[in-house]
Amino acid sequence: MKLILIKMGWDTQIIIIVENIQNEEREITLELYQSDANSYFHNGLSFAKFKLCSDETKVLFFTYERRKYLPYWAIQDISLKYPGKYFTAIGSSLDFNLGPAGIIKILNGEIIDSYGFWKRELEVTEFLENPIPEALYQWFGKDKLEEQLRELHLDKQPKKWIQDLDLYAENIIEFTEQQNQQFIEIVNYYTEIGDNWEEIKLTEDVI
User: Fold this and answer.
1) Rounded to two decimals, what is the model's pTM?
2) 50-89, pLDDT tens digit by residue?
3) Residues 111-140: b if buried by 16+ CB within 10 A, e if exposed
4) What is the C-alpha to C-alpha distance for residues 25 and 16, in angstroms, rounded to an integer?
5) Model confidence over 117-158: pLDDT tens digits?
6) What ranges make up the beta strands (E) of 6-151?
7) Which residue has the higher pLDDT, 62 or 190?
8) Residue 120, strand partner residues
């Protein structure tokens, strides 16, 4: 008997981190909102925040809940308009309901890396669906811990664009228990001390 998998609708938390910003945080927030998030922004947890980094650049953290997919096409278009800005996009549940999380990295409109990871291995379910900006930035930001660990998996999972909406489960990176513990420690630390991110109120500041 042939098993037929029927894909039904589900929600996924989208997280977009944009780095190397000068003073375009509100412009990029508006672009992200108008390109995809406006249809979903008030359905679940949604917010936009930014902070000033030690090198005088800014980093933007934008999150909202949408249906099914990580909208890479919209982020690519925006990235083209902002050369030199580093976009990292994460979806909490992709491919299918309770499916893997996925990550895409975009620079100058080009997807330079993408892969999936099982939330139960990295224990990030709660932290992706209830995101803490500083904790996730310290893990997923450029040259942060995720990128360092990513280099250890290049032999089995080279950097590439997986080129489909439904291939994260076929391009999984398996994190170790030690790496999992590193993530938990970062989240616990920044949960305790809080952060200095400034909120961008879309209804007042941007729209």
Assistant:
1) 0.89
2) 999 999 999 999 999 988 889 999 999 999 999 999 999 9
3) bebbbbbbbebbbbbebbbebbbbbbbbbb
4) 12
5) 876 555 555 677 788 999 999 999 999 999 999 999 999 899
6) 11-21, 47-52, 58-67, 86-91, 101-107, 110-117
7) 62
8) none
| Rounded-to-integer distance, Cα 67 and Cα 138, Å | 27
Contacts of 200 (CB under 8 A, 6+ apart): 25, 26, 29, 48, 49, 50, 206
Q: What are phi and psi of 155, to 5 degrees?
A: -70, -40
Residue 194 DSSP symbol: -
Which of 102, 121, 119 minimizes the C-alpha distance to 180? Answer: 121
**Which of 39, 27, 47, 24 is CA-nearest to residue 71?**
39
Compute how many other C-beta atoms are within 10 angstroms of the C-beta atom of residue 204: 7
Name the nearest CA neighbour of 128 among 94, 101, 167.
101
CB contact set of 37 (below 8 Å; sequence gap of 6+): 14, 46, 62, 64, 66
Alpha-carbon Rg for the chain, nearest whole angstrom, is 16
Q: Using an 8 Å Cβ cutoff, are 186 and 140 in contact?
A: no
Do 102 and 69 touch, CB atoms closer than 8 A?
A: no
Return the number of other C-beta atoms located less than 10 Å from residue 96's C-beta: 16
Helix (H, G, I), strand (E, B) or coil at 110: strand
